[in-house]
């Protein structure tokens, strides 16, 4: 592997591509290219370590090591059998394959993964008379197989476990927000740690913790124990240690307030456990508080939240969303508020015209991330009616 000129592909969620690209540019990436749910970039081994450790909206970071065209299974197998796998792993290391296939010719992903596994095992058996083992739960080396029609791309997964697994979440509720999505929402909303932050329906605290990490410039993977690249044959432990030290030296003190409300005591307990796990007890405060009975206490204030929606949590949607709008209007003047929901009909009950609408996905649920700007008096009406929402 050429460790100076790596071509790197970073996966993300739909709608977060530009946010990720900006993160990667700030981290020093060159030739940054925005794709669908991904960003391509070039860099050296140190840069690969740095983006794994720091990028907030990255899901996994792949390094392509082989690209070829295959028209049938035999050519696919032969190309993989001829590849020097011992430059990337030892016969004593375990491996796993995950697949993404868009091809009529090779439509069965499990079959192609099995074929690839056979080629890797046969390579080692032929050369060393020993077979490496597959471990789908906790592999030493994770390999990604991507087939687009007849174009095959084999990549090493430098992250290992997906990067939304930050390491701080010990407890979760019924409908937890993915950490990468939470961070992406905060960055789309423009949260930069200046001022104060409120999540009025905080659940197990993901938005609160991600908001605090952004405010303090704490690397996304501060609490993560292991990355895939640490099992690679070219792993440079000293280099990674230096990158972590340099990055942690940039952490800053946050002087504002980050507060979460919830009416569910079990959720607040879960949030406190996660906040403690993230070592944020001094930064984040959670309260047993009904948002609909609350008033604005912090100035200036940004609000971002993930209210209940979809079949997992039962609420009277129309009434609930109307109460959100009423609370905004009556109790939160001069506030910028964002909320995400998949219940597009109920969102209309908020009764305020959104100044921005961004399409995102929470798991498989298509959602809208809505921005509402509350102004006092007549200024509110003129400003809101004079804006066009994003589609």
TrEMBL record:
GO molecular function terms listed in the Swiss-Prot or TrEMBL record: 23S rRNA (guanine(2445)-N(2))-methyltransferase activity; RNA binding; rRNA (guanine-N7-)-methyltransferase activity
Organism in which the protein naturally occurs: Chryseobacterium salivictor
CDD domains: THUMP_AdoMetMT
Gene3D superfamilies per the UniProt record, alphabetical: 3.30.2130.30, Vaccinia Virus protein VP39
Keywords: Methyltransferase, RNA-binding, Transferase
UniProt keyword Transferase present: yes
Domain THUMP: 47-158
Protein name, entry field: Ribosomal RNA large subunit methyltransferase L
Record flagged with keyword Chloroplast: no
Highest taxon above the source species: Bacteria
InterPro entries linked: RlmKL-like_Mtase, RlmKL-like_Mtase_CS, RlmL_1st, SAM-dependent_MTases_sf, THUMP_dom
EC number of the protein: 2.1.1.173
């Amino acid at each position: 592997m050429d460790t100076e000129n790596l071509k790197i592909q970073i996966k993300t969620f739909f709608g977060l591509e530009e946010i990720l690209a900006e993160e990667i540019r700030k981290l020093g990436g060159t030739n940054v290219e925005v794709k669908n749910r991904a960003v391509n970039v070039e860099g050296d081994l140190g840069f690969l370590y740095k983006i794994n450790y720091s990028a907030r909206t990255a899901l996994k970071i792949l390094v392509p090591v082989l690209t070829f065209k295959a028209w049938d299974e035999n050519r696919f197998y032969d190309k993989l059998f001829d590849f020097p796998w011992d430059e990337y792993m030892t016969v004593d290391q375990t491996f796993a394959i995950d697949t993404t296939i868009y091809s009529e010719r090779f439509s069965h992903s499990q079959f192609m993964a099995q074929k690839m596994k056979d080629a890797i095992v046969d390579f080692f058996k032929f050369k060393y008379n020993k077979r490496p083992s597959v471990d789908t739960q906790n592999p030493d080396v994770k390999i990604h197989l991507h087939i687009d029609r007849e174009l095959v791309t084999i990549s090493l997964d430098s992250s290992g476990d997906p990067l939304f697994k930050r390491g701080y979440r010990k407890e979760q509720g019924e409908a937890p927000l993915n950490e990468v999505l939470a961070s992406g929402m905060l960055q789309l909303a423009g949260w930069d740690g200046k001022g104060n932050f409120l999540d009025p329906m905080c659940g197990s605290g993901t938005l609160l913790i991600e908001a605090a990490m952004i405010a303090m410039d704490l690397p996304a993977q501060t609490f993560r124990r292991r990355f895939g690249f640490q099992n690679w044959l070219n792993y440079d432990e000293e280099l990674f240690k230096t990158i972590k030290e340099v990055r942690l030296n940039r952490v800053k003190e946050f002087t504002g307030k980050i507060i979460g409300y919830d009416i569910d005591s079990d959720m607040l307990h879960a949030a406190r456990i996660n906040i403690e796990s993230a070592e944020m007890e001094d930064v984040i405060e959670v309260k047993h508080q009904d948002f609909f009975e609350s008033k604005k206490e912090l100035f200036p204030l940004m609000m971002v939240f993930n209210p209940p929606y979809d079949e997992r949590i039962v609420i009277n949607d129309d009434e609930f969303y109307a109460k959100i709008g009423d609370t905004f209007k009556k109790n939160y003047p001069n506030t910028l508020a964002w909320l995400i929901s998949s219940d597009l009909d109920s969102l209309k009950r908020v009764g305020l015209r959104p100044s921005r609408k961004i399409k995102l996905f929470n798991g498989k649920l298509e959602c809208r991330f809505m921005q509402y700007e509350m102004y006092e008096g007549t200024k509110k009406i003129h400003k809101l009616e004079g804006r066009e929402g994003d589609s």
